[in-house]
## 1
Amino acid sequence: MKHVFGPVSSKRLGQSLGVDLLPSKSCTWNCVYCQLGRTKAFETERREFYPKEEILSEILDAVASSKKIDWITFVGSGETTLYKGLDWLIAGVKKATDIPLAVITNGSLFCDPEVRRELLEADAVLPSLNAGSAELFERIDRPAPGFSFERHIDGMRSFRQEYTGKLWVEVMLIAGLNDSDAALQDMADVLKEIRPDMIHLVLPTRPAPESVVGLPDEVLVQRAVFILSAAAPVLQPAKGEMQLGSADDLLDTVTGIATRHPLQERELEAALGKLFDGDAAKIGEALEMLHASGRFEKVRQGGELYWIVRTVQLPD
Ligand code: SF4
């Protein structure tokens, strides 16, 4: 499938069927922690990157053939709301299934009333907030010209006023950048104005394009939870366990996931272990087949070995 991947398991969204609406990488920001690598050229104009009928048809096929899906999640190779026609897709999914639908976004286009309107029927929207000041916002998210911190916060506030679904704001906690008490307090103050239903604290556990991205230790994570919880309940970070649906289309399934999320080798091995009931010979054969496909490159970062798809931009 071209647009649909998973289901991928996560603490936040259970078994989540990912839907990628954009060519890689199409984004309004160039975050220091982006697992897709650096943004080579900003994309700021909304359009229907792929025919919406094609995307909907893939979603419905995946829903019909997957055993368990807790959420259908629009996410992927850039900023999701650059896709024009989200309302048509959301309506099409809702007409066909009761599975709730989430949209992961950086929220940078919420200042556009049309974007806010197109998202109204989503069950959950998960925008990003990584800084409580313009200076830190510029350092972490490195937005396209004109996409200022004030514009970002105004858009988030307006969206909250109009949207009645679950607003879960995602905060990426980066050691040495936004994990000081002052930075967290600034974020908590902004979050109080935005009034999310929940804050999802996430960590940069995957390869990042910039060396300034560090993983905070547990003490700092708990400090962040404490400070941010003044604004809304905080869901603490957790690693999801990846699950692979079947052995039939293993290569395409792993490629689909690794294109969007660099895979820890041990995460991949654990998922293969589950798929093959711990049969070491089959696990070894599968790893050999995936490796021999030539689609993947192995990258070591932070003591972990990751599999990434060769077309994904590598960190320096
Ligand atoms: S992390 Fe998300 S918002 Fe940031 S550059 Fe990457 S795709 Fe864009």
## 2
Amino acid sequence: MHKVVLDEFRGYYSRLPAEQLDVKDFVRREYALLHFGDQKMIRHLKFDSVSELKRSLVEGVPANVYYSSAYYRNPQADDMNAKGWEGADLIFDIDADHIRTDCKDEHDTWACLDCGCRGRGFPPDACPKCGMKKIDTVTWVCEGCLETAKREIFKLIDDFIVPDFGVSLGEIEICFSGHRGYHLHVVSEGVRGLTGDGRREIADYVRGIGLDPKEHGFRQVTGTGPIVGPDMRDGGWRGKIARAIYEFVSGRSQEELRAVVGPVVADNISKGREKFLQNISDAPPHWGGMRGYSLESLMKIANAAAREHVCNIDERVTLDVKRLIRQPNSLHGKSALKTARVSYSDLERFDPLRDAVAFMGGSIKIYVKEIPRVRIGDCEVGPAKGTEMEVPRALGLYLLCKGAADPRV
Ligand SMILES: [Zn+2]
Ligand SMILES: [Zn+2]
């Protein structure tokens, strides 16, 4: 990595108050460092105090700093069996890279390594021209991507973690990852002992895996007779499905309804939309004597509507009982932004591209290879290609870390 980046990272860690590196039960965590240019992490580190960790960061200037979601008796043991696992926080990872957003057409490109076919936006699973799966991607993240990831975090907290799992806001920590998304840590005795299987159940529940709306209280008395369904005030997926159907029918155009249930049923619903909605809300579980719709059509709507309420987490992170996750207030080696803690009450107005900026003031001269529009703080540049520019320090370091620019003196 360029010397200017290493110098700036070292400066950041020198200035950082050591207490900002504290995590719950600090001495029981395994630490891992990844240095610039290295593929392999240095693992099984244990620090006796946050000052000792800080010293190590100032001296070694790693690109990325991780700690274990797990608590160990011997965090430094290099044999996982000898570590003495004593539980782990429950972690959720939401990464904008995994979510299809329209803005990806503006800033992401992909190329097939076999035939050279190229395209913009979310990469295909296989090349549309030759069918091979070796796809190279160049991805960026913009305000739109990060806003989408934030909405997913709110959904996770407000629709699942708090109401369905009974976790209080005091037991969660939210972090901006420093690059493309957010992490949610549930730090509570209640989840510490969960096994991998237990965590998988939670991940599947949140992702709606194996969710069959029909199993959530729906029944039709006779062929096209009255429908019985869940109450919008029910807990868990029952209530979510009832609310999802209500929202879906009230908010969708006729075209969109047609795509789900076909023209006849869609036109029927459109004509009697008010009544349909009233039926759902009026006297559950008897959906207001709703008649004339087959349960099958209703389930098509339920499935489509419920899909919009699942939460887009990276399940591998949640079910891992000894995950290494980013250290709060450390720098991200691909962005020079910091892994910033955000309180729930500040999350709505949190702007990661401003509030996670670690370098204030100063400017850097760089040679830009190729970038889409990029904003850091108040400064916006690009799209640009093959040009020199002088930019604010934080933006320059961002582009250098992304590998999209070289320093100029
Ligand atoms: Zn191809
Ligand atoms: Zn975007």
## 3
Amino acid sequence: MNIYLARTRGFCAGVSFATAVVERALQEYGLPIYVYHEIVHNTFVVNAFKERGIVFVEKLSEVPPGSRIIFSAHGVPPAIVRESERLRLRVIDATCPLVKKVHRQATKYSENGCHTVLIGHKGHQEMIGTAGYIKEELLHIVETVEDVKKLDIPLELKVGYITQTTLSVDESKLIIEAMHRRFPNLQDPARDDICYATQTRQDAVKELASLCDMIIICGSANSSNSNRLRETGERCGVPAYIIDSAADLRMEWFRGVENVGVSSGASVPHFIVEDLVKELEKMFPGAAVQRFENPEKNIVFPLPELL
Ligand code: SF4
């Protein structure tokens, strides 16, 4: 058995940033600290913070007035910012800087009266946040090429688009091409919204797919980027499974497999992948572990000033 580890995997700079914000807030202020939504979509990260007393909430009404609240890496809509001010909450913003860049683009489109097609998965926390920066009458959400055909925007009006940061690079390309065919004057955002971490992790899974008979992705079921990695493997014709940890492995997946690829979503701690590798080595004594050089080691986002 050969075990190939993806070139890029584990925490992206945005997840490192958001978790570091929570750590620093704990050090500087101690408890109580509230976090609006899961700080990142990973069960282990969230449970570890819960064990240290951090309280995760889905509604601001659960937070006592005047308390400290951290906004998660996925970002929040302006309505939540306003509600926090009304409740005199002391806000610490852990929104990934790359998500905030998308918020700025959304604001700019709305200020210019531009109909904005938001491409992504309805109901995902990042989509809820970004949609809030687009005027209601200018907002259109699409998930598929089929949805593009149903858009009801007169051709003479201004139209632009933005995307969720963690989409499938290949699928969103097809949707954007369909948008360009449908709206000849379509405005592209100033820069690609799909973030570097999503792109490099999907590229790394394609590399694994060229070497492996099966791929395992570590990640939580609600993690968008982890699910896109599993789909990327499958689209390359290689069976791929998503697991929270080594405990979820199933022996039947390995029938006839000689080369297994391992990767993880951008919100997965490195130790989860290392534990998985140890488990695979136990299951398949003598297995060789192949590691590639990671090109993105030096990408770091500076921490915000805390309040
Ligand atoms: S996946 Fe991309 S957008 Fe999301 S937190 Fe990481 S760097 Fe930021």
